[in-house]
Design a protein that fits this description.
By secondary structure, the chain is of the alpha/beta class. It contains 17 helices and 18 strands. It has helices spanning 14-25, 69-75, 104-114, 117-137, 148-155, 161-169, 172-177, 184-196, 208-215, 235-247, 286-292, 297-305, 348-360, 407-425, 429-432, 441-448, 493-506; strands spanning 4-10, 30-34, 45-46, 57-58, 81-82, 88-91, 97-100, 229-230, 251-254, 258-262, 266-269, 274-282, 312-319, 338-341, 369-373, 389-396, 433-439, 477-479. Strands 1, 2, 9, 10, 11, 12 and 18 form a seven-stranded mixed beta sheet that branches. A seven-stranded mixed beta sheet has the order 7-6-14-15-16-13-17, with helices on both faces.
């Protein structure tokens, strides 16, 4: 048991492990303290199904998309990535569908057959513009952030500066309307998967455009701007980071709960141990960090201003077979993609507005938006000897607290309702479910230790310098939370940037 270190990292999530790896490679004595019995934070692979105990699943984060390739090279960590092609599948309850992938000719054929030439042109224009913005601003992710306006001035090509600022500051709905989509279903799909994911906001909420930009910053090698599956699940990412950090000399201890940080140099554990350090880096969310140390009132007020309820429901499933979609009965790779279950074209917009209104009123929506995954079709290494598939419903939105009832009372029935939505698109899906492992916002909070079950720590409506700074007002105390720049997701940039700040401040 160590009682002294150069740097103590509180929390062994992916950002904490990135920071520990970088600091240890600079010959600092690094100690990582994790209060859970397992490392990884929400980027972990588990075997959560009691009825199918050998089936593995990524229970928190599902995909890797936003980790900068420059950071992966710098860390020199091998992360086995699997391309999803197609990467999106938009089914309907009728004959129409779309598969988004590398086969542009087939994709255009589906657009023209099932949607319109206008929608095809709008989609092409959207992808071109967001790609140009991505090319301009990606380098900012491994730097300390400027304001959105200063970022535009310094990094964004002149013709797109106003567009960039509006995208970051305004609702995703305003951004998508610019491209002239004819189909509300297509607009809703893009808004849901990139604008609403993990965020407490809807079509008209300022800042959902920022979330859209973040989710379109995919630059992984071979990904063609899409999110990828990690072989062995998302726990592979954090396990590889931990192995590299240990190899560099860092020590990682689990089951070690930090209860107080004194003066940025003394770390007190629940078991009474005190550890002295030159610097302390906190990977926990900002709200947990605020409970660990004494901060000036204006800094506490800034942190409180970030607080939002998590509105994501993660329903992990064990399936005994693959569903069969009405619109596309044969398997053409759609199960490896993000499958978007949305209300019908004529009602999708009103249904989205009603769903978010329900959530704000503390009610469970009748038809929330659902992203559906069956990753074992791409990564069979996670299947059990019985051949079961892992699957997941990533549901936007649900309330953290239910008015007049509780999650304990409603969860089982709501999972049944969500599976009936799956049955609308792929009849018989419910009968394929062998077991479930649902995570409502309160369960996300308990299982992963994230305040209010908010999967991004801080809403991605906050961007660049509006997010939590890496350095705190307490000398020697730093944050590498997902609440820092650039965003919540499995990125690692906050860990990198916080470590760089520590190294500068220590003169190492």
């Amino acid at each position: 048991m160590k009682n002294q270190a150069d740097v103590v990292v509180v929390g062994a999530g992916h950002n904490g492990l990135v920071a520990a790896l970088m600091l240890a490679r600079r010959k600092l004595d690094v100690l990582v303290l994790e209060d859970k019995d397992a490392i990884g934070g929400a980027a972990r692979t588990e075997k959560p199904f009691k009825k199918v105990p050998q089936l593995a699943a990524s229970t928190g984060a599902y995909l890797l998309g936003l980790m900068p390739p420059e950071l992966i090279r710098k860390l020199d960590v091998d992360i086995p990535l699997l391309r999803r092609d197609p990467h999106y599948f938009l089914p309907t309850t009728g004959k129409r569908y779309l598969m988004f992938g590398s086969n542009q000719a087939e994709m255009k054929r589906q657009f023209l057959a099932f949607f319109s030439e206008q929608d095809w042109r709008a989609n092409q224009a959207l992808q071109t513009e967001i790609g140009e913005i991505r090319d301009d601003v990606h380098r900012t992710w491994l730097e300390e952030p400027l304001s959105i306006e200063d970022t535009a001035q310094k990094y964004v090509r002149p013709a797109l500066r106003r567009t960039f600022i509006d995208l970051c500051r305004k609702p995703v709905g305003q951004y998508l309307e610019r491209f002239g989509f004819k189909s509300d279903l297509l607009k809703a799909m893009y808004a849901v998967t990139d604008g609403f994911s993990g965020l407490n906001g809807d079509w008209d909420t300022a800042g959902t455009g920022m979330n859209f930009l973040i989710h379109n910053m995919c630059r992984l090698p071979g990904a063609d701007g899409t999110w990828m599956i990690v072989k062995g699940g998302m726990g592979t990412v954090t396990q590889r980071l931990a192995e590299a950090a240990r190899k560099a000399g860092a020590k990682i201890e689990t089951g070690r709960e930090v209860v107080r940080i004194e003066n940025g140099s003394r770390v007190h554990l629940r078991d009474g141990t005190e550890i002295r350090a030159k610097a302390v880096v906190v990977n926990a969310d900002p709200f947990r960090m605020a409970r660990l140390a004494e901060f000036p009132s204006d800094y506490v007020k800034r942190i409180e201003g970030y607080k939002r309820d998590g509105t994501t429901f993660k329903v992990n499933l064990a399936l005994k077979g693959l569903p069969r979609f009405t619109c596309l009965p044969e398997d053409r790779g759609q199960f490896g993609s993000t499958m978007h279950l949305l209300p019908d074209e004529t009602e999708v917009m009103s249904a989205m507005h009603e769903a978010f209104a329900d959530v704000k009123a503390g009610r469970l929506p009748q038809f929330p938006t659902i992203e559906w995954y069956v990753h074992t079709t791409v990564d069979p290494s996670m299947r059990d000897p019985g051949g079961h598939h892992n699957s997941a419903l990533f549901v936007q939105w649900v309330p953290y607290e239910l008015k007049g009832t509780s999650w304990d009372a409603e969860e089982d029935g709501y999972v049944t309702r969500l599976l009936k939505i799956c049955d609308r698109f792929a009849p018989g899906t419910s009968s394929l479910v062998v077991d479930t492992f649902p995570l409502s916002p309160p369960k996300i909070e308990k299982h992963f230790g994230i305040t209010r079950g908010h999967i991004h720590h801080v809403d991605n409506s906050f961007g660049f310098a509006d997010r939590l700074p890496y350095s705190t007002p307490v000398q020697g105390l730093y944050s590498c939370s997902a609440g820092c720049h650039p965003a919540g997701s499995v990125i690692g940039a906050a860990g990198h940037n916080a470590a760089e700040r520590v190294l500068r401040d220590l003169g190492s």
